[in-house]
């Protein structure tokens, strides 16, 4: 059942898979970002009460959704690293963490910038904002724990455990606005999945938002793939497969010059 | 799956379940303290299963909908008072001196922080607008909900005058055509 997983314990197999996947993330990511940003910022209609300020949704919501999505994928990598003891999974965890942390920071920052004119405050300690801040600390904790040990495998193990345990925070973030009284509004589009309700946003705003959500996923995914490949090459720079790839790139560069 | 992996999987799931249970219990125990604000009903009838009433003089936040027609400005200053309501008959009056957020409107959800000065009167030091999760163009909002949002900064002080023109209202467009299929 888990046989398909085993080849990717080998660094070169993961590297080759990543090389194949990268254009499928990078190109749609760049194209959709350009389309989504222009559509959202220039062509979507203004909101009836927030006016133009609501347009921060086109950055805030995608980054918030994927700050949680990438956390879950990081936790899955942590689970695989713990149970199967696959080292490439540890490197995947290390590759995802900073990207997820940046997404979390973007969501917190854009939220604060929007909150000041709309709510009347930059920050309030309600359940949604606090749990999202904890998510940022979890990401930073995973990154710090990884490098805190002298033995890298021990660091990877500790980081995997933290990533896995922290996954409990994800449902708390999502449901915080339903379980408790919060200043943050309830979900507009993710409730389609979690509560089977139709999205409460007009279609001419929903479509650019969906484009931006997919754009953010593809772009951040491309970053993770590139980070993982860099890490794989760096770790195994003396192994024949890595040497072969580096020599080939060197040759291509020389030809280009 | 070989036995060692199985053992590790069971151990990790065990740790995860344990942490989930512990977190769940902590959050359950703290559930009332995590709430950002009291609702008007909770202030009048008491909060939680033991119906604990907030004391007069207590600093607290209250959140609810601004009762339409209850917003009163005193003179030409910044003093304003309005009533909040949630589900029940309980109504709480908020007195505030300061600048209201742009989203403030009769019928809008707001959160006020301040001191309870009477059984259901609050002297607020800060008023925050609580935005809902609905987004729509102005024309659709007017057609669907009859709401024409005017930020407080553009309110006119004299009574009896027409509301100022909403800068975002687009009267030239056919209101039915934009997002007619919008499902509330």
Automatic annotation (TrEMBL), chain A:
Cross-referenced InterPro entries: Cyt_c_assembly, Cyt_c_biogenesis_CcmC, Cyt_c_biogenesis_CcsA/CcmC
Protein name according to UniProt: Heme exporter protein C
Compartments where found: Cell inner membrane; Membrane
Keyword match Membrane: yes
Function of the protein: Required for the export of heme to the periplasm for the biogenesis of c-type cytochromes.
Phylogenetic placement of the source organism: Bacteria, Pseudomonadati, Pseudomonadota, Gammaproteobacteria, Alteromonadales
Membrane-spanning intervals of the chain: 21-44, 64-84, 91-114, 129-149, 161-180, 205-225
Membrane topology: Multi-pass membrane protein
Gene: ccmC
Family, similarity comment: Belongs to the CcmC/CycZ/HelC family.
The Cytochrome c assembly protein domain, residue ranges: 24-184
GO MF term list: heme binding; heme transmembrane transporter activity
Keyword terms: Cell inner membrane, Cell membrane, Cytochrome c-type biogenesis, Membrane, Transmembrane, Transmembrane helix, Transport
GO cellular component: plasma membrane
GO biological process assignments: cytochrome complex assembly
From TrEMBL, chain B:
Organism: Aliidiomarina sanyensis
Cellular compartments annotated: Cell inner membrane; Cell membrane
Entries under InterPro entries matching the protein: CcmE, CcmE-like_sf, NA-bd_OB-fold
Protein residues bound to heme: 131, 135
Keywords associated with the record: Cell inner membrane, Cell membrane, Cytochrome c-type biogenesis, Heme, Iron, Membrane, Metal-binding, Signal-anchor, Transmembrane, Transmembrane helix
Topology with respect to the bilayer: Single-pass type II membrane protein
Gene3D superfamilies: Nucleic acid-binding proteins (2.40.50.140)
Protein name: Cytochrome c-type biogenesis protein CcmE
A GO term from the CC aspect: plasma membrane
Topological domains annotated Cytoplasmic: 1-8
Function: Heme chaperone required for the biogenesis of c-type cytochromes. Transiently binds heme delivered by CcmC and transfers the heme to apo-cytochromes in a process facilitated by CcmF and CcmH.
This protein's record includes keyword NADP: no
One GO BP annotation of this record: protein-heme linkage
Membrane topology (Extracellular): 30-184
Family: Belongs to the CcmE/CycJ family.
Region annotated Disordered, chain positions: 155-184
Gene Ontology terms, MF aspect: heme binding; metal ion binding
Pfam families assigned: CcmE
